[in-house]
Amino acid sequence: MHLSRQPEPLYRELAAVLRDELQHMSPGDYLPAEVQLAARFAVNRHTLRRAVDELVLEGRLLRQQGKGTRVLAKPLIYPMQAGSAYSASLSALGHQVDAQLLQRRVRPASHEERGYLQLPEGAQLLELTTLRLIEGQPVSLIRHAFSVIHAPLLADYQGGSLRQYLSQRGMPLTRTFSLIGARLPSREEAARLMMPKHAPLLSVQTLSRDLAGQPVELSLSTSRADRFQYQLAL
Q1: Three-state DSSP class for 40?
Q2: Which of 6, 105, 139, 155 is the most buried (most CB within 10 A)?
Q3: CB–CB of 230/206 below 8 Å?
Q4: Gap between the Cα atoms of 136 and 194, Å rounded
């Protein structure tokens, strides 16, 4: 199959052809090897790679070093409500969700964090960092900050739904507010989420309270904007 020689850059024309062909493939399928695709379209591998780059940036493909390039599903929609939990909400939609605990540390609370969590100056926080995977693919990094007074309650947490863990121990939480923004990822975030460093992240800062209305958790989630969408009920 040969591409036409139009004024539009050849790699974009090739990207359009591949974009159409992806409609007939299933999430998880691998593209043929670059050398095969380049030969099929009669282009060099540099042009082929630029076309694939376009689809990676659009969230249609995922490059996995040493494995190949996989077709991704459409962006996931997370229904954000006051009492919704990340893992439970997406599991209810039929997705396989996993949460891995990456780090546990105690650190000083910032001025902003003390204000949200109503802590005194000099207060310490327990911070848990989790990686959320959906269908085995990394989608979100979340930093959960708690006053250290909750450290004994969280001592046994090793992964999985943090909301469910707390609820089972008598502390169900309700989301008070969420601030949604966007930015570029850090080098570490890009590596963890297996995404290009120049692709956007969605960031969501959330304050959650217990049944008595006391602030308990301040979380900051960073998610691949091409893989994740938030749905707000108004």
Answers
A1: helix
A2: 139
A3: no
A4: 12
pLDDT digits (tens, 9 = 90+) for 64-116: 778 889 887 666 666 666 566 666 666 665 667 899 999 999 999 999 999 99
Fold of 76-232: Chorismate lyase (3.40.1410)
Spatial distance between the Cα atoms of 191 and 188, rounded to a whole number of angstroms: 5
Domain extent listing, the chain: 10-71, 76-232
Query: Contact at 8 Å (CB) between 62 and 26?
Result: no
Q: Which residue has the higher pLDDT, 72 or 3?
A: 72
CATH classification for the domain delimited by 10-71, as one of 1.10.10.10, 3.90.550.10, 3.40.50.880, 3.30.465.10: 1.10.10.10
Sign of CA dihedral 30, 33, 36, 37: positive
Q: What is the pTM of this model?
A: 0.71
User: Which has the closest alpha carbon to 80: 67, 71, 89?
Assistant: 89
Q: What is the pLDDT of residues 129-164, one digit of tens each?
A: 999 988 788 889 999 999 999 999 999 999 999 999
| Helices (runs of H) and strands (runs of E) counted in the chain | 8, 10
Q: CB pairs under 8 A, 24+ apart, for 63-70?
A: 63/194, 64/194, 67/30, 68/30, 68/31, 68/33, 69/30, 69/31, 70/27, 70/28, 70/29, 70/30, 70/31
